[in-house]
Write a structure and sequence with these properties.
The protein is built from three helices and six strands; from the N terminus they run βββαβαββα. With about 170 residues, the protein is an alpha/beta fold.
Amino acid sequence: LKKVFTLDEIFLSYDLPLDKSCYDDTSDFLTCMLCVNADGSEKLDPLIIGRYENYPSFENKSSIKAATKHGVSYHSNRMKWLTSTVFYDWLAVLDKRLALQGKDIIIILNDSASHRVINIKLQRISLLFTSSSSNFLPMNWGIANDFRLTFRIEQYKRLLEKQKKKKGLLL
């Protein structure tokens, strides 16, 4: 189970207000690709795809540098989608890293168009495709929902800390 991985993409709304009544459809989101092994003992760094090459809120750093600091990979494109090109590049880097470690893995993934890569020669990764709606995909068993929930809790904590700091400055 340690060498069997699964991956999938989820959307994360990073600017949702605390009060749902203030929510509208203009909320921006990121695509986040998660990859974890079957027993949960190894989680690969998330791959984040956003619209902008540089988000102003990333500590005055480029988005790529800020993402690297926080242990994620970052790419941008206008639609904020995982493309087959980005996926190809991610697989190639992972395969090289696995070759250095002398490790082989199997990745179970859905048959989405972005996962279809052509002419890639992987030495250490075997890809196993299944239907998009398959209950066979472990990400459909709650991993993605747990990640979203954890993300949201951290988001709320940061917003509350900002409120506390703001109130402290006003006193």
